[in-house]
Amino acid sequence: MLEGQRVVVFGGSSGAGLASAKLLASKGAEVIVAGRGAEKLDVKKELGDRASAFAVDGKDVAAVNAFFERVGAFDHLVISAGATNRGGEFVTSITDASFRETFDGKFWVQITAAHAGAKRIKKGGSITFFSGGANRRALKGMVNIAAVNGALDAVVPTLALELAPTRVNAISPGTLRTSYWTGVSDAQQEQIFGHMASILPAGRVGTADDIANAVLFLVTTSYVTGTVLAVDGGLPHAASL
Questions:
Q1: Which among 90, 128, 144, 147 counts the fewest CB atoms within 10 Å?
Q2: Is residue 177 within 8 Å of 196, Cβ to Cβ?
Q3: Could you list the residue range(s) of the whole structural domain that residue 49 is in?
Q4: Contact, 206 vs 232, CB < 8 A?
Q5: CATH number of the domain encompassing residue 125
Q6: How many whole angstroms separate alpha carbon 234 and alpha carbon 133?
Q7: How many domains does the structure of the chain reveal?
Q8: CA quadruple 215, 67, 49, 40: dihedral positive or negative?
């Protein structure tokens, strides 16, 4: 399916990014993974000889540009990078600094990667951003995350026009069982996951593999562009939050 194609997964050292890299490699792609921590990038064990990995700080514009210069021409860019805090109550918890930090850690990291990578994508290629469901279903304590996800969704149709024939889409995940929840106790995680499973039409929370399947669809389906694909178990239609 992807034999002879090169795919960059920016933020592919863990979670949905790593699952996407694994699935794309299994379909024949040469996968180049970029991640923040060198200690996370032992992807050969996960992906085998079809993969290479580089430690790149997505907040360092010069480092991101240098990475894409080193990569050269490629076919598809998947940008799953995005470190965000878990928000908080707008008046009592969110500060100007924490709001800006959310944008710096996700929006600007993804935009920087897209800006540096777009000029090296071959004709017929694609860019896939990662946003999230908080901007499509109002959730208390998530105003900063809703804002950054909404901003990423907003750039998709415009870039699809501007960068054509490169296709531009986004994945918008809902609640996932991934390393995002590191630092939250197992008991708290199970409480959150159980609650979400009980109210979502899908009857469960998502997995990294759910997102990987959606990434594969967007990468390989040449008639889809300018689209934000929700992979959220029906979050906007959940009975109650």
A1: 90
A2: no
A3: 6-181+208-230
A4: yes
A5: 3.40.50.720
A6: 10
A7: 1
A8: negative
Give the pair of three-digit tokens for residue 162: 């501007």
Angle ∠(211,177,226) on CA atoms, nearest 5? 25
Confidence of residue 99 (pLDDT cuts 50, 70, 90): confident
201 upstream amide cis, omega within 30 of 0: no
- 111-130 pLDDT, tens per residue? 999 999 999 999 999 999 99
14/113 Cα distance (integer angstroms)? 18
The rounded Cα 240 to chain-centroid distance in angstroms is 26
- Give whole-number Cα distances, 56 to 17, 53, 143, 176, in Å: 15, 9, 28, 25
Instruction: Pick the closest to residue 136 from 128, 127, 146, 126 (CA basis).
Output: 146
Amino acid at 200: L
202: in domain: no
Between residues 83 and 7, the one the model is more confident about: 7
Please name the residues in contact with 57: beta carbons below 8 A apart, sequence gap of 6 or more: 36, 63, 64
d(CA 149, CA 130): 8
Residue 104, in any domain of the structure: yes
Question: Is the residue at 235 inside a domain?
Answer: no
Which candidate, 129, 29, 28, places its Cα nearest to that of 77? 129
Who contacts 41 (Cβ-Cβ below 8 Å, separation ≥6)? 13, 33, 35, 53, 54, 55
Q: Per the domain annotation, does 147 fall within a domain?
A: yes
Tokens in use for 52? 């290479």
